[in-house]
Amino acid sequence: MAKHGIDALADLELATLDADTGEAPAERLKDMRSAHDLYNSLRNDDHQSALNRASIRAMFDGEPPFDEADLAAANQADRCNLNFDEAGAILDKAQAGYVDLLNSVPTYITVKTDFGDENEREEWNGAIAEEFTNMVKAWPEYSHRFLLLSSYWLQDGVSFAAFDHSYDWRFNSAKFGDFLIPRRTMASEENIQVAFWIREYETHQLHSFIRNPEAAKKLGWDVEEVQKAIIDASAAGSTDSMSGGSRGDDWESWQENAKNNDLGASTTGAPVKVVNAFIQEFDGSVSHYIFRENGEGGDFLFKRKSRFEHIHQCMVGFTYGQGTNGYYHGIRGLGWRIFSIIQELNIARCQWLDGAKLSSSMLIQPASPQDLEKLSLTYFGPYAVLAPGFKAVEKTTPNFGQNIVPAIGELTRLVNDKVGQFSSANVFSDNRDRTRYEVEASVQQASELSVTSLNLFYEPMDRLFREMFRRVQRKNYPKTAKGGAEVAKFRAKLEARGVPLEALFNIDQDSVKVTRAVGGGSAASRQVALRELTDLSPAFDVVGRQRLMRDRVAAKVGYDNVDRYIAPPEVERVDINEQLAALENNDLIEGHTVEIRPNDPHMLHLPVHLKKLSEYVASVEEDGAPLEDVAQPMSLVHGHAVAHLEQIQADPMIREDVAYYREALQQVGEIIVRAMLRLEKLQRDAQAQAEAGAQEGAPAESNEKDVEHQAGLRRKLEEHQVKLDMMRKETDAKINLEMQRSQARSAIADAEAASRIRRPKF
Q1: Beta 383-386 vs 390-393: how paired, if at all?
Q2: 627 is a domain residue
Q3: If pLDDT is split at 50, 70 and 90, which confidence band does 718 have?
Q4: pTM for this prediction
Q5: Range of the domain at 719
Q6: Residues with Cβ < 8 Å from 261, sequence gap 6 or more?
Q7: pLDDT tens across 288-324, in order?
Q8: Ordered DSSP codes for 363-413
Q9: Can you tell me the distance from the alpha carbon of 288 to that of 277, in angstroms, rounded to the nearest whole number?
Q10: Domain count of the chain?
């Protein structure tokens, strides 16, 4: 009895530890024949699972629920047989969230270097992450391979990112059916002892591996075996008329045609289907072998013992949890969860349409087969007369509203329940209007439903990008190797930005993580989160507020366009208006009057004035400056800022910004009030001392002018505070009025609609 799967590993294909000495074998895989036998064993074990995956993929691809040949054989070729593509739409919506995970972040990764001092490290970390992101984005295949990776993961619950090269940082995407592993393998890369990755190469691709025979042999290629594979594929795909009558069945003729750029040598040959075998040795390293899928040839096309130091260096498995039994083959994806329901939905809708066509038609019964050939209708104005020999048959039409339609509704609800854990895109189940808080609660609930799947996706993404970065980080990455030109350009950009390469080489691998997206892949959740952060922003420092502003802008235009509107925190981008606002600060501090005009760029001036006020506050709270010494300049700048705020408070487009500046100025105003109160106390104490000295006959100077000046400042401050309070009340009143108007408009619209419904038609 033949053994399969995990049982086959024990005694047939792989060498194991010596029973007497306990020593590990030099290589676990004996030879190419053993590798091919083990491959066939695993493929046979996977046969039924492969059929199931094919059915699921056919559902997503739009295959109808019934077999057309079966319908035709049963004389039912006219029946409705449609796939309504609900599964495809569900997959698109679910995948959109995972694509958003990377597109809604400023950099794909975050890193931490151990080189340099702390002030330099933060800047260098940001530059390295940014340039790495730019390199990945510039890779033309990246979007395609990431979409495949996430799509396979959603459909099957398992997908793989794989590397077939020691240096190339660019990964390949593979579905579960392209990777064969023993069925009783626990769902973790560390547990994969054997993995077969099925691929296809065009003949010219294989030839590129051995173009330099000597270098190819050093890498592990068997040049003669590769040549045989190319010759066999070319002969299988060629004809007698191709390439001047040459069938390409010898190496010299094929090579000559290839040198002459003969299309017959490069594109007409059949692709070579190969198997990449990854075998984990007892020391944890992974050996890499390549052989022909059909088992032809006398040896491996490629063989490299312990090519990878660890299994993560050649593959990363994306798994939706641990399944029902902890095995890879026990994991179920979105396709499996909705397959049966979607099939029944398609059948129910087809029956619904069949019934609708039947109910909308008239049944006519001929008296004989001969009468059927004479079927005709004669029209007399509004009347139609059947030919003799026919009669109309009364029929009873089923009530679809009582049977099929409710069934369709229930099946749709079940599908939505199954989809919720994979996507937060479908937030609402009805079309009724909601308040802001209802929307936020619904979005939060939907996000919680999908948080598990998002975290499950992030974990392998961390491993994948960590491996990509490890390869890019290698000091000895040859420029001539695959991906080497991009790495050289990446490093040149870092040096141009003043980042030493030692900072790159000293990044802790464990610190490399995929940047988590705000909102977890949902645009609605991101808007809610950013709104809540805006409410907390008065407590942020300048850098935090700037980063929040960038995230808010990016939520509208994307991170590729955010620099057009607001610079990164580490970049000083001084506008002419900002320079003018800084000059105004100087004039105000010196006691000069600065006029405010309605057409001033108030939103550009306000941050500059608020920044100056923040500097004064910091000088008191952090540097210990006397509060009474900064009261006067703070009051003057504060009053000017309040005047700017008055000009923009009614603009609905910047309502949240107005609220932020109003709150910030209110807090600064309270500090100024405390300073004035303290200053007044000091003045009263000084005046009391002066009066006491005068009574004793000591000379005393009058402080009437200073007292009057401070009293004036206090009056101005009180005026500013009154203005702020009035502005708040006016804004709140306008918001309430607008809400009342909106409700009134809705009520009028509802009344008009009801009136139209009740109005009789003639």
Answers
A1: unpaired
A2: yes
A3: low
A4: 0.67
A5: 574-734
A6: none
A7: 999 999 999 889 999 999 999 999 999 999 998 887 7
A8: EEEESSHHHHTT--EEEETTEEEEPTTEEEE------TTTTHHHHHHHHHH
A9: 6
A10: 1
